């Protein structure tokens, strides 16, 4: 009996002692949580729209010598930038009140910086006068030898060589990649050409591996050999390889030491962390030699009104993921009969996994799947899945592409540097109804 009484007493004491301790812990945790919430509150509180407490700069850029408006000028102020229109005008809203430096720059002109004060809610009007640089000293037409040295490989690349050599041919006979109608600019002399150099030792392919699509596509067999050069500001020089693609080629910039020699730096146009190096050019001959200009094929499909309903082929596409036994929301490009591509189409936006239907002119096409979802990321396929098909006038075609997101081999990219296969669950948001 005494032992049982002692145990009951101990249990009562335990409740008496433990409960105040729990209360104390609860109070302490509550205070800590309250302090944490007080710190988070200003961080999570919605900020007022920037435009409600910001000013605006409106202006025009003109030639300081002639007073004529200058288009295509890059005007920036910290995190805000605009490009002037054909009348040299620009508008930059959402600038915080206070002092700002406005910078105007365009190739062929000296960079101009002006300081001004922004007040809310006023609009500040400015006129920026920019002066021309020196006229180009040298002509670039001819045949050039080239040496490219690799200083730093890209983040996802394993070069097999540190130096490549090749040639560049520049001639006025090559048409501008932007088509006819460009007015010659005496302060920036541009010239088109072709280059011969094997760039694969630097990053494994002739074109940077992280390129997704090109809005132009290959218009002829020399597309991946195109070069575009310019000289300006006395002896400055720039050369772009594969210039129609924003990513994929390389860009050179430097100085002409004399009429026949140039040197400078180059960088790989990549989404992230591309290779960089330096280059040397030497003129082999002022005569570029015989130039063969292939006839450009149009990449533009016939206008919609150019085809009657009976002459159109109607197509829709969906993608089935064998890993999850469901249709998925994915993407594909369309290979056109002339060898080009148009992009990007989507699937899974309609019932039963279909994408929106689209019409085509009759001809041979290809569905090209080169990306697929991995979790919330997009991975690129090492070997794109292609499905050729014939679009026939007046016919409807349903095309289903099958892949396994767990088994397909991805290429290395900025979000998959090791190139490993997808090993995460596909989110419900990317699954389409069966």
Can you walk through the features of this model?
The structure is a single chain. It is built from 2 helices and 24 strands. With 434 residues, the chain is mainly β. An 8-stranded antiparallel barrel has the order 8-9-10-11-12-13-14-15.
Identify the notable features of this structure and list them briefly:
disordered N terminus; mainly beta; 24 strands; 2 helices; 5-stranded mixed β-sheet; single chain; 8-stranded antiparallel barrel; 434 residues
Give the uncertain stretches in residue-range form: 1-32, 42-52, 212-219, 296-302
Q: Radius of gyration in whole Å, from Cα?
A: 31 Å
Q: Globular, elongated, flat, extended or rod-shaped: what is the shape?
A: globular
The main sheet comes to:
8 strands, antiparallel, barrel
Q: Helix- and strand-based class?
A: mainly beta
Oligomer: single chain
**Nearest-integer average pLDDT:** 79
Percent of sequence in beta strands: 35-45%
Q: Tell me the number of strands.
A: 24
Strand order of the largest sheet: 8-9-10-11-12-13-14-15
The ordered string of helix (H) and strand (E) elements is HEEEEEEEEEEHEEEEEEEEEEEEEE
Helix content: 10-25%
Distance between the termini: 72 Å
How many H/I helices?
A: 2
Give a short summary of the structure.
The protein is mostly beta strands and about 425 residues long.
Would you spell out the secondary-structure blueprint of this structure?
Blueprint: H1 2-44, E1 55-63, E2 74-77, E3 80-83, E4 89-95, E5 98-105, E6 112-118, E7 123-130, E8 142-152, E9 163-171, E10 188-197, H2 200-203, E11 226-232, E12 236-241, E13 250-258, E14 261-268, E15 276-285, E16 313-321, E17 326-328, E18 331-335, E19 341-346, E20 358-360, E21 363-374, E22 377-391, E23 396-403, E24 431-432
Parallel strand pairs: 1-7, 16-23
Antiparallel strand pairs: 1-4, 2-3, 2-5, 5-6, 8-9, 8-15, 9-10, 10-11, 11-12, 12-13, 13-14, 14-15, 16-17, 16-20, 17-24, 18-19, 18-21, 21-22
